[in-house]
C-alpha cells in the first residue's frame, strides 16, 4: 500500500476511535474590539467591544478536537455551581460530546477572558479556584470512570493543575486502565512526572521536559537523553516530546527515536496546539495505528491548528485536504509550483485571521485560462480595493462544463502557478462547482470584485456579501481582450 493510501486509510479509521478524557475543563472567552481613545477615568485604553467568541478550553479543547476528527469522546471533569459551568455543559451537549460532570459548590469554574484589539491581545482575565477537589468528589469520579473504562479505546489525562487530577485520581485511573488493557496518554503539568507512573505515553513540551528532568532538550540527542531519563525514572513506556518549530520526537524504551519535522505553515496562534496533538495521537492509537503513524498525523493536525486564531481544532476534512494537497505536489514533482495555491479551509481560516486584525479580504473568480491584459486590469483593481486578495479559479472539469470540451487550454495547476506569480494575488483556490457561491459563504470576503460587464444582481454571491455588510466592486474592463477571441485567432 502506498504512503498516500495508508495516510487516507488512517484518518478514515478515526470513526472507530473511543476516547475517555479525564481532566481540567475551562471556558475560553475571546472579546474582540477596537481601541480609539483613552479613558478619562484613568490612563487606560477603552476597548469598544464588537464581538465575542466562547470555546471549550483545557480538557474541553482536547475532546472538542477528538470530536472534530470524527471520533467518539467522553469528558470526565468537575465544574463549579456557576454560569460558566452551565455554559460548558451546554457546549458539550451542542457538540455531541458525552460527559461525566461533577459539580462542587464553592468552586469557580475556570474562565479565561482574552481582550483582543486587531492582532494584539491587550488583557487576559482569569476566574478560577485551583484547589484539589474534595475527597467525596474523588470517590464519585473514580467510581464513575471505572464503570465506563471497558468502553474506552484510549484514556487521556489532561492535567492543567486546576484541582481535578489529584494523586489519588491519577493513580486509580492509571491502575484501572492497565487492568483493562487501555493505553493511558498524559498531557502533564508540574515538575513531578513520577505521579504519572504506569502511563503508556507522556506528552511534554520542550520546557516541561527540561523542568521535569533538569536536563537541556534543544538538540535531537538532548531530547532523547531527557526522554530516556523520564522513562527510566517514572516508569513510562513512551515519551512524545513536542518541540515547537523543531517538530516532535517519539522516544520509547527499545525502539530507535523518531524525529518528525514540523509542518511548515504560517503560525498565527499556538494556543491549544498541544491539545490537538494529544487528541489526534490518542484517536490514532484508539483506531489501531502504530505509534509512529499516530504521531505523524498529530504533527499534521498541529500544523493546521497553529494557523488559526484563538483556541481551535483541526477537523478531519482539513487533515484530508492537507494530505490531498501533498499528494498533488508529489504527483507533479513540483514543490516550487503554485506557492499560493491553498484549500478552501485555508482561505476561510486566513480570512477569519485577517478580519480579527481589521483588514479587508477581497475575492474574485474566473477561469483565467489564458491570462491577458484584461485579466491583469481586473486583478489590479481588485487588489487596490482590499488588503488581501483571494482568487478562485474553476477546476478543469468545471471549465469544460462552462466552456466546452476543448477547454481549458491550461490545467488548473498551471493556471494557479501563473496567478501565484502575480504580486497582486495573495492566495489562489480551485473550486469544482460551476459557481463560487459556496466559497463565498465560507470565506465571507469583505469585498467581492467582478468585471463591470455584469450588473450587480448578476454577480454570484452579491446577496450573500451584502447580507453581512460587505461591498461589491465592479471593475472597469479593458476593451478588446477575451480568452475566447484569443483562442479563435490562434486557430486561424
Describe the overall structure.
The protein has 17 helices and 19 strands. The chain is an alpha/beta fold and 492 residues long. The protein has two domains: 3-331, 3-Layer(aba) Sandwich (UDP-N-acetylmuramoyl-L-alanine:D-glutamate ligase), CATH 3.40.1190; 341-491, HUPs (Rossmann fold, 3-Layer(aba) Sandwich). Strands 5-4-1-8-9-10-11-12-13 form a nine-stranded mixed β-sheet, with helices on both faces. The chain has a six-stranded parallel β-sheet with strand order 14-17-16-15-18-19. Strand 8 (154-158), helix 5 and strand 9 (184-187) form a beta-alpha-beta unit. The longest helix is centred in the middle third of the chain and has 17 residues, at 316-332. The radius of gyration is 26 Å and the shape is globular. The two termini are 49 Å apart. The model is unreliable at 1-5 and 329-337 (pLDDT under 50).
Features:
492 residues; alpha/beta; UDP-N-acetylmuramoyl-L-alanine:D-glutamate ligase; Rossmann fold; 2 domains; nine-stranded mixed sheet; six-stranded parallel sheet; disordered N terminus
Low-confidence blocks of residues = 1-5, 329-337
Strand content: 15-25%
Average pLDDT figure: 87
Number of domain units: 2
| Percent range of helical residues | 25-40%
* CA distance, first residue to last residue: 49 Å
Counting helices, strands and paired strands, the structural category is alpha/beta
Evaluate the radius of gyration: 26 Å
Please name the CATH topology of the largest domain.
UDP-N-acetylmuramoyl-L-alanine:D-glutamate ligase
According to CATH, the homologous superfamily of the largest domain is: Ribokinase
CATH domain class name of the largest domain: Alpha Beta
CATH architecture grouping of the largest domain: 3-Layer(aba) Sandwich
Strand order across the largest sheet: 5-4-1-8-9-10-11-12-13
Largest sheet report: 9 strands, mixed
Number of helices: 17
Oligomer: single chain
- Give the overall form: globular
Q: Could you tell me the number of beta strands?
A: 19
